[in-house]
Amino acid sequence: MLKRYDYITIAAIIAMFVTTLLVWQRVPDSLPVHWNAAGEIDRYGSKVEGLLLLPMIAIGMYLLILFLPKIDPKRKDQDPMLLSFFALISTLPLVVIYFTTVAIALGYDIALPRVLTFTIGVMFLLLGNIMPKVQSNWFIGIKTPWTLESEHSWFMTHRLGGWIMSIGGLLAIFSSLVLATTWLMVPIIALVVASLLLLPYSYFVWRQDGARASQNT
Predict the structure, then answer these.
(1) Of 84, 110, 136, which residue is a domain's last?
(2) Whole-number mean pLDDT of the chain?
(3) Total domains in the fold of the chain
(4) At 175, is the pLDDT very low, low, confident or very high (cuts 50, 70, 90)?
(5) Nearest Cα to Cα of residue 161 among 145, 176, 141
(6) What's the rounded mean pLDDT across residues 133-158?
């Protein structure tokens, strides 16, 4: 059964396809499809790439997120509302990139990297909020050999990861509003920091997990 966040995601994807039909004849044959670190357009693509690729990817991502938990070997019953919300968060950047690209193709002066950094910041904040609520599984979350082996390691690692993602999200939003350039470096740095901290942390918590040790004796 569809949840309320599913309706929002589906409506956003439908809006992308409807927009494609409405602007197909109005946009030029070549559309901007890539920007460099300075926020300058460095590659153009066809209408098919510029107007249809992202909506198709959004559909695939949405269906994948809903389907993969059903074949999870751990067979955990994830909260359907949580999965619905996660699907919405995951498709959000694609929707923003699509509509910003269309606006630029129609002649509006918009810095997509700035908009995208702000969007990623919001996404990080939302992900940071739900990460501690995700149960152990093979497809969604921070998957290391130790979080998959230990429920305690999974929970503690995702709790710390939630804080890191939230802080990174706030910094990304701030940088998109204040910095003149290099906006996307902030969320990238946040991901690198998270990886460097959470991998050894998940191992440390795994080593301290008394429940795991008792199971192996």
Answers:
(1) 110
(2) 86
(3) 2
(4) confident
(5) 141
(6) 90
For strands 31-35 and 41-45, give the pairing. antiparallel
Residue 217 lies in a domain: no
Q: What does the pLDDT read at residue 4?
A: 84
How far is Cα 217 from Cα 210, in angstroms, rounded to an integer? Answer: 11
What's the whole-model pTM score?
Answer: 0.85
Q: What is the pLDDT of residues 68-109, one digit of tens each?
A: 877 777 656 677 888 889 999 999 999 999 999 999 989 888
